[in-house]
Amino acid sequence: MDVQNCIKTIQGKTTGLFQFRVSYTDKIKCISELARHLDRYLDGIIMSATRDEEPFVQEIAAAVIVSRFHELKGVRELEERMSGMPLQTSDPAFWRGNRPADEAVTLVSIASINGNGYVRQAALEQIASATDWRYIPFILRRAGDWVPQVRIQAAKTLAQYKATEFRKGFLAAIHEIESLLQVKRVDLVAVYQEVMRWLVHDVDPAQLLIEVQELGDASRFRVIRYLLAEHRCGEVMLGTFLTDRSFLVRLATVRHVVALSEDWSSGLLEGALNDPFPSVRTSAFKELIRRDRATPATLTLALTDPSLDVRNMAAKRLALAREALVEHYREHLKRGIRVDGCLLGLRDAKGTEHVTDVVPYTAHSDPTVRQAALMALAGLAPDQAYEHAMLMIVDRNKRIRAKAEAILLERHDQAVFDRALSLLASEQVMHRLAGLSLLNKFGGWGSLPHTLKACLDGTSKVADQAWVNLNAWERYACNLFTIASPQAIERTRIALGNVRAGLKELTYAQRKTLDAVEVFLV
After folding, report:
1. Cβ distance 106 to 71 under 8 Å?
2. Among residues 164, 272, 293, 470, which one has the fewest Cβ atoms lying within 10 Å of its Cβ?
């Protein structure tokens, strides 16, 4: 059955010449058919079936809409997709009385963002009479509604929801709470401050800390950012934030602690020196030095920190001669202490006479050590770094491959091009992908035939990446301002013909890309 007949069937209109009534099974089939199309208008037709007189039809239609609802993220995305549905003011009450609680929450939430103000107000009335924490983002959204009556209803409903059992829902909706400050049609600053005062200030800090720790990363960061800016956080709370799983939380916290003058704040900064994120360590270490609280042991340990800023601050504070620094790093390398920081420190100290101490670590089992060794070689012995980069371009660690690639492309010589071709001929998928990446960044006319050839690769991952690179080459070629040799053009024409012959069913995008490349061969 086509779409138009499906719409008529769902609306209860007969479509056959000898059909006198529409059965519920016909409606269910049509709902399933329309559900295959991601179309806003058709979703509205399916939504209308949620108020059908037949319960089975209601059930199927509601299931489709609920599925659509959960595919979208956030109230704004829902508004863009579902606000135009043709709803009636009686729908929210109907759903609440006829659908299971979870489905009713979803459907009433959709009604609360509808383009019809009467429908939005009816939805808020149901939200007020059947409370559920999942409604909170939608209530907050209506607090800035353009219809005064809806805003008044939202304010009453919001006040009703400010209860202990809904605190977690408000914390999870912190993004919508912050959005109150962005509304231009009406001043909601007072509403924002009242909600945040109830949510954050008028509660025991220990309870608040437990609630915040249970939030997702994005909501937790927003709440903690507010706490740091507007709330006097104590030592325990700040210490907890400094061990948070999100580096954004830890970074915001250490920057807050830096501005404190209490004695215990230095202890928190000392603990932050063990943070895995370099910016956190750098901020903490810089402040400890400013306060003259960095002990000789702390400064010595900082000499082997993986962060360049930390190493430089420590070296400057200790005022060690170059020879002393080099010896310090060599001694720690021998003892296996903070090897990655020692390798990078040896590079900083220009210890070119000790390159032989660095080379063995390019084969270390720890990827951070291998990366540090390659970076150290790049600074101390570029020729040796180039040779190792030829091998490490296929390292199992992505960051090391990227560093090796950058070193090779600095030379941009024929050997690099040949290495890319040898990788493209490998049986290993990862090697071919590395070769494609190197060839793509090498650029030029010589890379084009080989990129075209890779479009026929038997592994879809390689072929897909080749098409991406081919598109990138075509955009780059517009600004290349060079003339290809006759040999390069001929090789490209052959490769282009092979792709057209090898792929019988080209997509529109693929055909467009090949046509764009062919323009350069005329």
Report:
1. no
2. 164
Task: From residue 156, give the alpha-carbon distance in Å to each of 105, 125, 129, 174.
Answer: 19, 10, 12, 19
Residue that has been written with the tokens 């924002």 in this structure: 192
Please give the pLDDT value at position 137: 94
Distance CA 60, CA 52 (A): 11
Below-50 pLDDT ranges, the chain: 18
Residue 507 dihedral angles phi and psi, to the nearest 5°: -75, 165
What is each CA distance from 119 to 64, 85, 134, in whole angstroms? Answer: 21, 11, 19
pLDDT of residue 206: 84
Q: What share of the chain is helix, strand, coil (3-state, %, to 5)?
A: 75, 0, 25
Query: What does the alpha-carbon distance between residue 32 and residue 382 come to, in Å, rounded to a whole number?
Result: 64
Specify the residue for token string 């660095």. Answer: 358
Query: Which residue shows structure tokens 């005062």?
Result: 197
Give the amino acid at 231: H
Euclidean distance between the first and the last CA atom of the chain, given in angstroms as a whole number: 49
Q: Which among 79, 308, 320 is positioned nearest to 176, based on CA atoms?
A: 79
Helix runs in 412-457, H state only:
414-424, 429-442, 448-454
What does the DSSP assignment read for 378-392?
HHH-HHHHHHHHHHH
pLDDT value of position 459: 92
Q: How far apart are CA 27 and CA 457, in angstroms?
A: 46
pLDDT at 7: 85
